[in-house]
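RECORD TYPE: inverse folding
INPUT: structure tokens
STRUCTURE:
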């Protein structure tokens, strides 16, 4: 009876009114939001957003790679996403001779498009609430096995509201994806880490790919015989622009939010976890940047690694600042006190907060061990490679199989590896591990090993001087007793412990999460005015809002649209991230913008980026931003620095997502890339 009550109540969560533009809504339940969306300027129906009976906007949206979103913009599989989402692929295809990161890449015909090994995109076929099916006794594995029958199909069941609801997601995955175009990094990554998470922003953060399929339009591995995929739906592209107050909708795969967690979780993030990770990544980035400045080869090798490290590093800084500015911990504590007063007379809820607090106290120390290991010893590339080699050895059926696989693994690793960088990082990170790790968690074998080598500095140099894993050629017979593998295996117990806490967040550990199920039920009964939408978990979501500037500080208003004038103001040939192409300087000098120029802020210019109030998170990178008619107006790529706490608390007065204006994308394709032919296969309005 209680289980049925939970199911029935949680079914209603999506029907509650939302505050401001907060919320990440499940597309299959978007009908409950249409009235509010239409009041803000949306002109389509719920079935236009999500349908399994006819083509809908969901069929134009894909999971791109391992953690981004992309969108189809033509009937021939042409796909847009962010430059930073395609960055690893662009880097993989680059070399000193063909430096596509620095100079960009533009295929001038289908034959020039570059296959990207290992890259895939996935389309959501359908989603289904299976809560009642599971409650009736059906097995998860049976539901998944039945759902994934078909060409390239996969399926998973994901939790909503901490397990009170269960949704089945069925995907079709395409593995022949080719690079079509990418602007030079001085456009696609303009401003680099300095401008990351900052507004005003002037980054042309886009790249272009094409999805290929077999002759029957089904997923297939790469083949010259494959044809461009024909999607069921692709976006029409609006060239009319945006203005403050215009409706915006984002459609994508946000990765991780924690809107309902208690003060214990927020306190850990703001006071322990984020500060530790920021400090350790700062040290790693300083080492990498120093070496990148010395060598073009190293700059390319470590470009993607640097970007990956720096993105979260800067996000965490903004998150701490935002949580502290909002006083989120204190606000949560006050909210919990009010809840406790209400729950005191209800035996089923009376001790929930106490139980949750005790659960956090029990699991937090081990979770910290996991995070510290990951950011210190676990960040050493040679250690991770040693573990890969050891795992490969244990899985290989014979020495010949192992030798062949090892050779390939070694070649891929060494392609983008600098032993000097890794050695320097190892010295820093292992010392930080020893300084920060509780003494009882430091492996005894590790302590003994470095003491025998007369200290930690000598021991680290001994590891790098004597390992054979980093030689130009690797030999099977030398792997078994390699010193780096022995070192990596000293931390096996920590990794085993990590396996018990390897969840998205501290609050997803079962000992804690089990209390959130009744807690969500209780909140629904008590806080009837609150909007309840499921936390992001990299499943397809809809968020909506409006184009809007914001007051950054007292009397400091930021307009919602940036222009090419800002690019020229920052242009600096002496700084890699600000050294724009000469062609862009020439176009600006002549104001030769063609159809892409217009009056903005009293100047004849070209729009570059814009702000909106959509609720976003990691994973929304590359997501389409559409107008009230369902037309593409931009590509989401970031949040403002003061918005990054929105994963835990959404503040409508300050939270803004940043998108590259689709007109700037078209301008760069046309005028900088000289690939205007691509525009002819898009539906421009």
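DESIGNED SEQUENCE:
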């Amino acid at each position: 009876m209680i289980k049925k009550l939970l199911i029935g109540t949680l079914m209603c969560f999506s029907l509650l009114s939302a505050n401001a533009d907060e919320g990440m809504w499940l597309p299959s339940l978007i009908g409950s939001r249409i009235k509010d969306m239409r009041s803000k300027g949306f002109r389509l129906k719920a079935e236009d957003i999500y349908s399994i009976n006819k083509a809908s906007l969901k069929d134009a949206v894909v999971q791109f790679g391992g953690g981004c979103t992309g969108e189809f913009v033509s009937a021939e599989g042409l796909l847009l996403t962010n430059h930073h989402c395609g960055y690893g692929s662009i880097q993989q295809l680059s070399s000193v001779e063909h430096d596509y990161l620095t100079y960009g890449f533009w295929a001038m015909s289908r034959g020039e498009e570059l296959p990207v090994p290992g890259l895939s995109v996935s389309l959501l076929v359908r989603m289904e609430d299976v809560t009642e099916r599971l409650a009736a006794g059906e097995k998860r594995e049976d539901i998944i096995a039945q759902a994934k029958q078909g060409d390239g199909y996969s399926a998973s069941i994901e939790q909503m509201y901490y397990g009170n609801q269960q949704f089945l997601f069925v995907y079709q995955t395409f593995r022949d994806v080719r690079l079509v175009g990418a602007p030079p990094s001085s456009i696609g990554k303009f401003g680099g880490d300095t401008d990351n998470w900052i507004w005003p922003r002037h980054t042309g953060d886009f790249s272009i790919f094409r999805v290929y399929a077999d002759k029957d339009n089904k997923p297939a591995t790469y083949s010259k015989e494959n044809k461009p995929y024909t999607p069921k739906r692709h976006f029409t592209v609006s060239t009319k622009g945006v203005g403050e107050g215009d409706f915006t909708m984002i459609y994508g795969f946000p990765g991780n939010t924690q809107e309902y967690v208690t003060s214990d979780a927020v306190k850990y993030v703001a006071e322990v976890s984020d500060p530790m990770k920021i400090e350790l990544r700062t040290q790693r980035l300083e080492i990498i940047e120093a070496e990148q400045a010395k060598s073009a080869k190293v700059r390319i090798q470590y470009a993607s690694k640097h970007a990956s490290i720096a993105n979260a590093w800067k996000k965490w800084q903004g998150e701490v600042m935002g949580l502290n500015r909002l006083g989120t911990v204190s606000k949560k504590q006050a909210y919990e006190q009010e809840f406790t007063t209400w729950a005191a007379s209800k035996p089923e809820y009376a001790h929930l907060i106490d139980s949750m607090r005790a659960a956090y106290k029990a699991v937090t120390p081990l979770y910290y061990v996991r995070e510290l290991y990951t950011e210190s010893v676990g960040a050493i590339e040679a250690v991770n490679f040693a573990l890969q080699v050891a795992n490969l050895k244990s899985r290989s059926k014979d020495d010949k199989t192992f030798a062949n696989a090892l050779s390939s693994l070694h070649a891929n690793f060494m392609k983008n590896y600098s032993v000097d960088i890794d050695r320097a990082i190892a010295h820093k990170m292992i010392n930080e591990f020893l300084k920060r790790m509780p003494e009882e968690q430091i492996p005894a074998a590790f302590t003994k090993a470095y003491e025998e080598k007369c200290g930690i500095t000598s021991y680290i140099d001994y590891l790098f001087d004597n390992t054979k894993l980093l030689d130009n050629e690797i030999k099977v017979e030398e792997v078994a007793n390699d010193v780096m593998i022995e070192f990596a295996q000293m931390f096996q117990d920590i990794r085993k412990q990590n396996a018990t806490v390897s969840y998205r967040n501290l609050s997803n550990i079962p000992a804690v999460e089990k209390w959130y199920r009744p807690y969500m039920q209780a909140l629904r009964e008590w806080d009837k005015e609150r909007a309840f939408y499921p936390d992001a978990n990299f499943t397809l979501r809809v968020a909506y809002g409006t184009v809007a500037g914001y007051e950054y500080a007292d009397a400091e208003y930021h307009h919602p649209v940036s222009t090419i004038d800002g690019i020229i103001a920052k242009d600096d040939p002496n700084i890699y991230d600000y050294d724009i192409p000469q062609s862009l300087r020439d176009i600006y000098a002549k104001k030769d913008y063609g159809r892409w120029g217009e009056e903005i802020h009293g100047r004849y210019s070209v729009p570059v980026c814009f702000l909106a109030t959509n609720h976003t998170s990691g994973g929304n990178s590359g997501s389409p931003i559409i107008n009230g008619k369902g037309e593409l107006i931009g590509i989401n790529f970031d949040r403002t620095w003061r918005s990054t706490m929105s994963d835990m608390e959404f503040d409508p007065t300050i939270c803004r997502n940043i998108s590259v204006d689709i007109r700037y994308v078209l301008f760069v394709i046309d005028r900088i890339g000289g690939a205007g032919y691509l525009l002819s296969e898009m539906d421009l309005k």
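NOTES: The two ends are 54 Å apart (CA to CA).
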